[in-house]
Amino acid sequence: MKTRAAVAWKAGAPLTIETIDIEGPKAGEVLVEVKATGVCHTDYYTLSGADPEGIFPAILGHEGAGIVREVGAGVTSLKPGDHVIPLYTPECRQCKTCLSQRSNLCTAIRATQGKGLMPDGTSRFHCDADPVFHYMGCSTFANFTVLPEIALAKVREDAPFDKICYIGCGVTTGIGAVINTAKVWPGANVAVFGLGGIGLNVLQGARMVGADKIIGIDLNPERVAMAKKFGMTHFINPDEVGRDKVVQAIVDLTGGGADFSFECIGNTQVMRQALECCHRGWGESIIIGVAGAGQEISTRPFQLVTGRVWKGTAFGGARGRTDVPKIVDWYMEGKINIDDLITHTMPLDKINDAFDLMHEGKSIRSVVVY
Ligand code: NAD
Ligand code: AHE
Ligand code: ZN
Q1: Residue 304 falls inside a structural domain
Q2: Which cellular components does GO assign to this protein (predicted)?
C-alpha cells in the first residue's frame, strides 16, 4: 500500500512530503495508522547530522499514537482497532535485560533498530523501489508505519491521540527520569537544566513526588511562566548570573547543593555544571540530553570521589508496555498536565514549521495531526 510521509533525504535538509510504498506487517509485526506525532529535539538532532546512528533517507519521528490496522502472523497481544503508542524502547519481557528488572533497555531488536531496519534486516518503506530507513523503530512521520509487536503499548481508547502521543517520548522521559531513574524523594532539592519539552516534564515529576526547591535553569526567559506552572520554585538565567556562576548560585540556594539535577539540553558543558551543582556526599546528576557525535563529558574525578553520582536515562527508565498505559491513565485522571505543553499543532505538510518553532524557542511541543 501507499502512505504519505515526511522523508529526511539528507542531513540538514528540510523534510519533504512524499507518497511512498509501505509493505504490510511480517510475522511478529503490526501495521499502525499514526493519528498524531510530537516533534522532539532528538528528531532535529538526527536530522542535523549530529547523530552517529543517523542514516538517510529515513522517516523520522518517534513520539506517536495511533490505531492498529493489521497484524502479522503470530501476533497475539494486539488486534486491528487497538489504540497504541509506539515504543523506541521496546519491552520483550524475555531478554536478559527485561528479565533482570534492573533496566528498561530491552536488547531484543536494538541492533537492527539502530541500523534503521526491522528485526529481519529489511525496511518496510520504499520510494521508487529504493529502501527508505526506519527511525528509532517508530517512523511516526509517516501516516502508516510498521513496528514489532514488542514495540507497541496498548492504551485506552478514550484518550486523545493529539495529546497522548507526547507520552511516547517527552512526558515519559521527564517524569520517568524523576520517578524511575533518580527516585527523587519528598523534600529533595532539584535542579533542572533546560526547560523545554523534557525539562518541563521533569519539573512536573519533581512536584508530583513532593520535592522542596525545584530550580529551573534556562537561557530563554520566556520559559519562566510555563515552568512556574509546572512546579519550578526558583529560576536561574545563566546569562544574568554569569555562566560560570550557575553552580555557585545553586549551591547557595540549596544550602550545599542539589540532591538531584537533570540535564535536559544535550550540552556537555552544562552536563558538567549539572554534576558539580550536586550536594557533596550524595547528590545525583541525571543526563537526559543527547550530545552530538564525538562529544565527551569531563569533570575532576574528585567530584565523584566526594560522593556525587553521574547517571543517565533513556525513556525515563520506563518499561514501555507496562508503564506507558499507566501514564495515559494519569493523564486521563488529571494527575499530569500535557495539554499546556502542546503549544502548536499542524498538518503533516507543515512539519518543517515544527523545527523552526523549536529553534526560535517559541514552542514547547509541536504535534502533527494526520
Ligand atoms: P527543547 O529544545 O524543547 O528544550 C531545550 C531547552 O534547553 C530550551 O528551553 C533551551 O532554551 C534550553 N537551553 C539550550 N541551551 C541551553 C544552555 N546552554 N543553558 C540553559 N538552557 C539551555 O528540547 P527537548 O525536546 O526538551 O529535549 C532536550 C534534550 O533531551 C535533547 O538533547 C533531546 O535529544 C534529549 N532527549 C533525551 C531523551 C532520553 O531518553 N534520554 C528523550 C527525549 C529527549
Ligand atoms: N543514536 C544516538 C543516541 C540517541 C539516544 O541517546 N537516544 C535516546 C532516546 S532520545 C529520545 O528522544 C535513547 O533512548 N537511547 C538509548 C538507545 O538505546 O538508543 C547515538 O549517540 O548513537
Ligand atoms: Zn524524543
Answers
A1: yes
A2: cytosol
